[in-house]
Amino acid sequence: MTTLSQKLRERRKSLGLTRIQIARACDVVESTVVNWETGKHIPRLYPTQMEALCEMLGFTLEELAEMQRQE
What we know:
Elements: H1 4-14, H2 19-26, H3 30-37, H4 47-57, H5 61-70
Helix pairs in contact: 2-3
């Protein structure tokens, strides 16, 4: 089973985005994105930040919420 962290990392890389770009869009520091991608933390974001993450990575809010529930 693919984990949320793997899905986030794979999608970011497939879109040619950097961790810094994701961090800026979500108004977090780069180390937070690193923690998401390594599975140390799952994204706990305000709604506007969650929307930014979904927009950047091409996920719907429902898809991201479901991935979080599966963690």
